[in-house]
Amino acid sequence: MRKNVLLLAIFSIGVFSGCVGLPKKPTGNPKNYRPADTGKFAWGISTSSYQYENPDVRDGEKKYFSTDWDMLVKRRAAPVKGNALYSWTEFEKDLSALKKIGATHYRFSIEWARIEPRPGYYDEKAIAQYVRMTRALKAAGIEPVVCLWHFTFPDWLYDTKHPSNSNWLHPDCLPHWNAYVTRMVHAFGPSVRFYAPQNEPNGQITTAYLVGQWPPCEILNFGDYKKAIIASAEQFRSAAKIIKKYNPHAIVMSVEALPWWKIGTIDFTHAIYDEMQHNNFDHLDRTYDVCDVIGFNYYYSQIAGPMGYLLVGTHKGPHYTMMGWVIDPKGLYKQIKLVAGRYKRPMMITENGIATKDDKQRIKYLKDHIGMIMLAKKQGYDVRGYFVWSLADNYEWHYGYKANFGLGYMNPKTYTRELRPSAYFYRDVIKNNGRNIELPVVKKRKKYSNSAALM
Questions:
Q1: For 382-404, what is each residue's pLDDT tens digit?
Q2: Per residue in 176-203, pLDDT tens?
Q3: What is the mean pLDDT of residues 70-89?
Q4: What is the pLDDT of residue 296?
């Protein structure tokens, strides 16, 4: 607790010492901009490679790979993952569960380290395996949504002696990233239309360069934080260009972490609130113009202030998740309105879900949040899809296996995904295209925080 208080004090001093201000609104869409055709509303499920796949290789083998996160695990700075949900060797178990639920879209990620375990060496069999996965999804009537990066880097991009030259900021990152993206997009060909170059780069960079929990584990390094935002945005734009070169009809999506921030009672100058909005939008402001869809992940709202920071994880009760996150469906509705006004592009909610052991609470959470989306759509907001996190209880980074987000769970003997009632609730939502969800009533307010200034 003392460490958290100290970090917060330093952070607050850094925020208050300068004039932060809200992030400026982007200039808008070009005159010739036309919204892309994404087809019918996407009822999806999201997962990630590191959190689901078993490595299926051993140290010493030619194809052995390791990520920067594995390096944290080795020094006991993160929980052991083990074989996760065996999704690499048992992908058909995931596919079977997706078919039972009736998902129309499936968002999953490629493990860059598996594809390029050593600089310049590519595992062609691993590439072929990912291609088979996308084709199996297509054959099942499920649209694959490929995320090219979901938090983890190959370990050879993590310089432990010089953290400031790691990952996004490694001098070899951009050329290897371009080569990796080119190989994957070329390999997928027409079987993949939807691409998300990066997952929550804004959240990962905050955790890596300010909080110190994720590689390269720097604390309050605002200089590297800003450099990493710029570098990752450059690599996002580069990926988008490569994707369009090989597949001009592809749909490029962002996947940003956008919690709904509220102004704290002692944030007198709104400086902390403004800084949190920069965390939300600085990366997206640099990349939205190469996106066909603005995808964002929404889980909770939070007060932007000392108490809001310190109390995260301590709350319990029906209005909180098992991780202590505030359950706030209205925050999703407000974020949809803000994002629509700021970027004027189609949107998808690329992750939404709850960590809970009470599946009735999960059903209520999903119903309430989907209701907000249906309301926003009825009011004319261009929302094109919704993705639940996640298919089954999985490895959740620093939480290990303690956070239960799944519509199901893995049977440890058969590896099958045992579906919970919430999975069948979602199946019914998909069958009815959301029409079975009662629309909520949201009272109009003249102004909420400083959100109007962001639109």
A1: 999 999 999 999 999 999 999 99
A2: 999 999 999 999 999 999 999 999 999 9
A3: 97
A4: 98
Q: Whose CA is closest to 368, among 319, 406, 404? A: 319
Q: What is the DSSP letter of 352?
A: E
Q: What residues have CB less than 8 Å from 420, skipping those under 6 apart?
A: 359, 362, 406, 407, 408, 409
Contact (CB, 8 A) for 31 and 119: no
User: Which pair of structure tokens corresponds to residue 64?
Assistant: 């052995």
Count how many Cα atoms sit within 13 Å of the Cα of residue 408 in the half-sphere of its side chain: 24
- In angstroms, the CA 155 to CA 166 distance is 9
Q: Dihedral of the CA atoms 38, 51, 215, 114 (nearest 10)?
A: -80
- List, for residues 9-66, the tens digit of each pLDDT value: 445 544 554 457 999 988 877 778 899 999 999 999 999 999 999 999 999 999 999 9
CA distance 67 to 62: 16
What is the H or E stretch that residue 306 is in? helix 306-310
Q: Are strands 417-419 and 408-410 parallel, antiparallel or unpaired?
A: antiparallel
% the chain with pLDDT above 70: 93
Cβ–Cβ < 8 Å for 112, 65: no
Geometric angle at alpha carbon 408, from 403 and 413, rounded to 5°:
100
CA dist., res. 312 & res. 425, Å (int): 29
